[in-house]
Specification:
Oligomer: single chain
Strand order of the largest sheet: 2-1-6-5-4-3
Distance between the termini: 40 Å
Radius of gyration: 15 Å
Shape: globular
Number of helices: 3
Strand content: 35-45%
Largest sheet: 6 strands, mixed
Length: 127
C-alpha cells in the first residue's frame, strides 16, 4: 500500500475515534451513534468477567443511554495509536458519585474502522 494512503487511513481513523470521544464527553449520544456502522459491535466492560456484547445501533444505544446520563461522566485519552483500520486508546473514565466524590477507572478500547465509520468498540478495564 502507498505510504500516503496508509498515512491518510491512520489519520482518518484517529480523527474518527477522537470525534467519538468528544461526543461522549459532550454527552451527545446521537453524534456518537452517527459515527458507528449500522451493524456495529460494542463490548462493554461489565458485567465481569467478560462484559456484555451489544450488536447493532439499537442495542448499542440501549447500552450507552445510561452511561451518557452518568453525572460527571468524562473520558480522558491517555494514549491513542492507529495502525491501518485499527485504533487502540488507553483512557481514564471519571464520574461523580451520589455523595459528590469522584470515582474513576482506567482502561483501553480497541476499535475497528470500516468505510469511514466505527464498526467495533471493544472495551476493557483495569481491576
Amino acid at each position: 500500500m502507498d505510504e500516503n494512503i496508509e498515512t491518510r487511513i491512520r489519520t482518518d481513523s484517529l480523527r474518527l475515534v477522537e470525534q467519538l470521544n468528544a461526543a461522549w464527553n459532550n454527552h451527545d449520544l446521537e453524534t456518537a451513534l452517527s459515527l458507528m456502522t449500522e451493524d456495529c459491535l460494542f463490548e462493554n466492560t461489565s458485567p465481569a468477567p467478560d462484559g456484555e456484547l451489544s450488536s447493532g445501533k439499537t442495542a448499542v444505544r440501549a447500552c450507552w443511554e445510561p452511561i451518557f446520563q452518568t453525572s460527571g461522566m468524562r473520558f480522558e485519552t491517555e494514549e491513542i495509536v492507529a495502525c491501518d483500520d485499527r485504533v487502540t486508546a488507553c483512557w481514564r473514565y471519571s464520574w461523580i458519585n451520589s455523595d459528590g466524590t469522584e470515582g474513576h477507572v482506567r482502561g483501553i478500547d480497541l476499535f475497528k474502522i470500516r468505510d469511514g465509520l466505527i464498526a467495533e468498540k471493544l472495551s476493557y478495564v483495569k481491576g
